[in-house]
From TrEMBL:
Residues engaged in binding a divalent metal cation: E19, E67
Membrane listed as a keyword: yes
Organism lineage: Bacteria, Pseudomonadati, Pseudomonadota, Alphaproteobacteria, Sphingomonadales
Keywords of this entry: ATP-binding, Magnesium, Membrane, Metal-binding, Nucleotide-binding, Transmembrane, Transmembrane helix
The name this protein goes by in its record: Diacylglycerol kinase
Active site, per annotation: E60 (proton acceptor)
Transmembrane spans: 21-38, 44-66, 87-111
Pfam name, any one: DAGK_prokar
Textual note on the cofactor: Mn(2+), Zn(2+), Cd(2+) and Co(2+) support activity to lesser extents.
GO CC terms: membrane
Any one Gene Ontology molecular-function term assigned to this protein's record: ATP binding
Organism: Aurantiacibacter luteus
Cofactor requirement: Mg(2+)
CDD domains: DAGK_IM_like
Amino acid sequence: MLGRTRFSLNGWSTAWRSEGSLRLHVAVSLVAMAALAMAGASAWWLAVVAFAVAACWAVELLNAAIEALCDTLHPEHHPGIGATKDIASAAAFTVNMGLFVLVALALYVALQP
């Protein structure tokens, strides 16, 4: 188990160093969680948003892995590789937009009198 944890942490470290979008998503997510907590969001909302944040980070990591694999296996431009990378990016965009809506809804609920 510890060996696998080490592989996972190595993956996080590699993605953190190479993926600016991952660093941005982590920072924005932490700010959003702090804003929800300060707005008085319930523990239920915080838990739901925390799970959604984890899902977004996971999809960002998968997107980074797919892009790295594509770039390694086929460094030249290829329409199929481009489509693969675009689709992986679309998956990340979709889950992040869902998180945005969820955070907005949680803030709306938390700020109601």
